[in-house]
Amino acid sequence: MHHDMTIHDKVDAMQSGSALPRDAERPAFPIPANVYAETVLSVRHYTDRLFAFRITRPQAFRFRSGEFAMIGLPNAEKPVFRAYSIASPSWDEEIEFFSIKVQDGPLTKYLQKIVPGDTVLMRQKSTGTLILDALTPGRRLFMISTGTGFAPFASLVRDPETFEKFEQVIVTHTCRDHAELQYGVELIENLKHDPLIGELVNDRVTLYSTTTREVTPRMGRITRLIENGRFYTDLDIAPLNPETDRVMICGSMDMIKDVKELVEARDFVEGSVSNPGQFVVERAFVG
Ligand code: A2P
Q1: Are 122 and 31 in contact (CB under 8 A)?
Q2: DSSP one-letter code for 147
Q3: Of ligand 1's atoms, which has the minimum distance to the CA of residue 211?
Q4: Using CA atoms, how far apart are residues 100 and 111, in angstroms rounded to an integer?
Q5: Whose CB has fewer CB within 10 Å in the chain, the N or C terminal residue?
Q6: CATH number of the domain that 155 lies in?
Q7: Greater model confidence, 285 or 41
Q8: Which CATH number does the domain housing residue 80 bear?
Q9: 154 and 274 together in one domain
Q10: Which amino acid residue places its CA nearest to atom 3 of ligand 1?
């Protein structure tokens, strides 16, 4: 299994003299204006393409579950910032992110190497469209994701407000391989057993994970599984209906386009905070 290195391991390592504080190894660049400099608390690698990490949360930082922030590293005079959905809920004392690793990605080629004790920069303002206030009231909430597009739903599904507004929450996650689904599977499992919100959530949240390349019992793109009805029969649920259902979509550009067309063909109308509707979309971070 994975070993999760925490800030405590890191401090122990530093005190025993086996590792230098990493910040001393590189030149100090000024922290840009309107940016928080936070400390990495833990890092977990799921595959050679996906990892998750947690950082300290600035006292004054407020966000709505489902929003994204701009993050970067203090490794240059003008650091590269990228949009990252916050994967932790708004009540959490720490901030969590679920990230892709791109070997030559301007940010992720460095970000994938962070260890506890390192500094991550985060712009002070968060924003985004995948928020509960952008949806009109409904009974079932469908969260449709691929890859790191799961991140905003990791936030929303851990927010009790989601369950105050919706009776049933169905999260779909599609990845190429089984190992890429692990983050989501563990998160939902832990949520169901959570001492605080587990009871509220238990039978009301369903995770539907599928692979498209590695052979597993449940395979296929979510678009196809919705169109051929397999999604509904697998879960024994009624088909998508704009009167009762709301949909949030997050993934690659192509996936968003296809799922958006699919729900629009079923008469769902796109919403925003200023004009709430029946579905909302956001592109997942890509490089
Ligand atoms: P596929 O393997 O058939 O391309 P990626 O790792 O490239 O970001 O993709 C994540 C997942 O999203 C993959 O399982 C991929 O399936 C799926 N996917 C890619 N494009 C679409 C799309 N247009 N509609 C639905 N799923 C998609």
Answers
A1: no
A2: G
A3: 14
A4: 10
A5: N
A6: 3.40.50.80
A7: 41
A8: 2.40.30.10
A9: yes
A10: 212
What region, left, alpha or beta, does residue 17 occupy, with left being phi > 0 and alpha being psi -120 to 50 degrees? Answer: left
Query: Of 109, 108, 167, which is closest to residue 137 (Cα–Cα)?
Result: 167
- Closest to 169 measured CA to CA, from 105, 258, 267, 235: 235
Number of domains forming the structure of the chain: 2
How far from each other are the two terminal CA atoms of the chain, in whole angstroms?
27
Number of neighbouring beta carbons within 10 Å of residue 89: 21
Residue 50 alpha carbon to ligand 1 centre in Å: 15
Instruction: Please write down the HEC assignment for all residues of 78-126.
Output: CCCCEEEECCCCCCCCEEEEEEECCCCCCCHHHHCCCCCCCEEEEECCC
Q: How confident is the model at residue 17 (pLDDT cuts 50, 70, 90)?
A: very low
Q: In angstroms, what is the span from residue 5 Cα to ligand 1's centroid?
A: 31
Does residue 147 share a domain with residue 108?
A: no
Q: Tokens at residue 237, please?
A: 């649920």
Q: pTM to 2 decimals?
A: 0.91
Q: Closest ligand 1 atom to the C-alpha of 147?
A: 10
Q: What angle do CA 235, 238, 239 make, to 5 degrees?
A: 100
For the record, the structure tokens of 57 come out as: 């949360």
CB 97 within 8 A of CB 51: no
CA–CA dist 169, 154 (Å, integer):
12
Residue type, 181: L
* Same-domain pairing of 60 and 166: no
pLDDT confidence of 8, banded at 50, 70, 90? low
CA distance 122 to 81: 8
Distance CA 126, CA 103 (A): 27
